[in-house]
Amino acid sequence: MSKRRSLPGKLERRLRRRLGQQRLLTDVESLAVYECDALTHFSAMPLAVTFPHSTEDCVAIMRACFDAQIPVTPRGAGTGLSGGAVPPSDGGVLIDTSMMRSILELNTVDRRARVQPGLVNARLSECVAENGLFYAPDPSSQSVCTLGGNVAENASGPHGLKYGSTRQHILGATIVLEDGEIIELSDEGDEYDLLSLVVGSEGTLGIVTEIEVRLTQKPASVMTLLGAFGSLAGACQAVSDVIAAGIEASAIEAMDHLTIEAVESSVHAAGYPRHADAVLLIELDGNPRDVSADAKAIAEVFEQHDLLSFERANDPEQRSRLWQGRKGAFGAMGRVAPNVYVMDAVVPRSRLQQAILEIGAICTRYDLRLANVFHAGEGNLHPNISYDARDPDEVDRVLKANAEIVRACLDLGGTLSGEHGVGLEKKEFMHLQFGAPVLESFASIRRAFGPRSLMNPGKLLPTPRACTEVKGPAKQVFTTFEDLV
Amino acid sequence: MSSGRELAGTFQTPGNLAVMRELVTAASQHGTGIVATGSPLPPPEVPGDSHRVIISLSALEPPFDHQVSDLIVTAGAGQSVDTLQDRLRMGGQRLAAEIPRGLGVTLGGAVAAGLDGFNAGLFGPLRDQVLGISYLDSLGRHAHCGGKVVKNVTGYDLSRLHVGAHGRFGLMYEITLKLRPLPDHEVTVVLARPTLSLALKTGLALRSLGTKISGLVVATGAVVAGSTVLGTDDSDHGPKEKFLLLRMEGHPQTLQRTCEALAKRDANLEVLDTPSSDRLWSGLGHWPWQEGFRVDFQLRPSQLEQAMAALSGTKLDTKHSMIADIARGRLQLSEPSRVRGEGADQRLIELGIPDLLHHFGATASLPNDPEDRPRRRDRFGQLPVAHRALQNRLAEALDPSGIFAAGRRFEEAGA
Questions:
Q1: Which of A109, A186, A195, A415 to mutate to test the interface with B (most CBs of B within 10 A)?
Q2: How many CB pairs under 8 A join A and B?
Q3: Is the ipTM value over 0.90, yes or no?
Q4: Percent of chain A predicted with pLDDT > 70
Q5: Local confidence band at B266 (pLDDT 50, 70, 90 cut-offs)
Q6: Who among B69, B158, B300 is closest to A441 (CB)?
Q7: Of A38, A190, B101, B279, which is most buried, counting CB atoms within 10 Å of its CB?
Q8: pTM of the predicted structure, to 2 decimals
Q9: Which residues does chain A have within 8 Å of residue B161's beta carbon, measured at their own beta carbons?
Q10: How far is it, in rounded angstroms, from Cα A234 to Cα A257?
């Protein structure tokens, strides 16, 4: 464990001059709130927390920290699930963007808005709803998570199946580099696509201070379908068949029996059949005739896969009820155990069934309670392991199972993360997915943006020590990383 | 194997990846530049290429792995896009990017140039379809970025960085793409309008039609006159009219109802049969490849009218064409004259294009002669200094040997 630094007096005075008393926190009681994000497994206390109002504030903070050689970690609402907003263990300055929450420009004709990064995701959709528009990426935490955090993680949610991840809805961004340099990135220029590097970079390349987003027209009609199945395997096969049939749903979500039980026993109860081994929640949107035709086609596919019951919902109230269970699923898991580890990995959609079986076997082997809630249409798995963090043995088993699940997904042709990012959680696994040339490229990109590596250090890239710690069927042994970061 | 020095100025067609890797390694060791091509024939000489080796991917056995139930394909960079589309069609699927057919475009070339088409407003640009890329890096090592899944946020998105980078970050040899099912049905309607303003306003309103719009374009000038669908002498529409072209896809009944609803409001509406529709969109897509002077503006949809009016007020060649993609805010201006170098710069100034870009805060792809591109970008100063420096730092970081198409995209020291 590195020794914790203290905030240099000169830096504190400089920050205080710019931000005043209210927008700079340095007392331990206040800082404790910022020790971790939603993945509580990792924590470290920052030296200070800053609350900028503008790009200019961010420039001032970055320059001050650059001069003092103090690392900086950006933070949105702290809803991240990979430890991306945790300060370095030896301390650093945290930039909380929650006071940068304005819509700076709204252009409904061109269907775009320029916003500050602290704006809450769902708030943007609320503000443009009267214009028949919405902001499409819908992470489960959208009622609290910020657009800046979404950009950092390239976030997405259930409707990513049709509408894609955050990157597909970002038209431009203002980014401040570690030395305070401002770079305007645009989707529209004739240049290298730096915007695609910045989106999903987990705050390691700079801090995004303004975001230009694409707004999407609300669909003419929406229908939600609920299929209850006698087996999870049958539900998974139904998903593969729906996709292979060329039916383009906007969301295909799956929940297993333990999740159904937890949801139906909670305040989020949605009327899912308790006797079902799995349910699929499918949403269709678009022209009403297309939606009806697709719903009929889906029903026909479902009937071939151990279908127990099928429900269609057209009106908003009914649809909202069906979604209530899915949206409350993670919260409902609190009924099962005090803690839940929400994992994130992706497999090819045709391998869903196999992946679910293997994950189930791993958790059985480690005597862990597994619940599956996942974006089935994209092969994005979220195995949720319920555990008690006060039990060191159980924590150890959870971590071991996590490592095996990651490897199993990679062996099936998958990737480490579909939406939570690498952060602290998965950096030790990066060499399992990527060979040395790509990992070195990642390090080179980081250096090109910030030679001193002051932006959110310790995230995304494996550390040399970690590279040798992880054992297992690595695709390529990574040995040349020492001098890169 | 030749030494890197001997490779300079040669055209190489490696038959397998091992030989290609040896070529890259040799070039890297001697700092010999590499330009990739999908063509089996040497391209026209470009100044500076005598110091480079041109590597053709045409002789590589193209991999082809079509996972129908995943809607994913992995194919060789040297594979013809036309061939690829034909093979995917057999599985009821397609590349979402509408890359012009019949021109011999290879997949690697399309990715390097970032090509897409009029359906990008519906499906997004090509970079949204690219899931993973295998390439040789500047040390000749095999690198695999991205993945073969439809959702992936692991590490920096190197795959997208390759799209449109003109081969600056490595020699791509295998590309994985997301696919779309073939549409149930597709229909194109043509709406004639007496003025440009009306055509564009109608187009903006049609975006809210509620159907899947895979093309929404206003075309004027020679591209209309030259179209066998729109511009023939026996056309019902006079040559002065502006044409709004709307292509939709979906279930046949839905499209039929939509066309009926549109026809009630517009007596001049014409629904094209499938061959005419295919010919029309193919012709529009091919147009940019006509030899000549061409500028692609990236505007906002609401700026199209003012920009087109401003350009119409200049001394455009009588055979000019303008194609406005309303869904994306793209405007393509082309003239038949083959001006190059300083002449092209002068033409840009005569047409007031730098002022136009400044007025709208817009950007444009300027006439794209490889030898002029970096200088022209510098002269018309589209990128702020800090941004350009970052772009160059990135290129240096990912290609420390400076061997991959250096200087073709941006002016780079020593390129």
A1: A415
A2: 225
A3: yes
A4: 94
A5: confident
A6: B158
A7: A190
A8: 0.93
A9: 192-193, 196-197
A10: 13
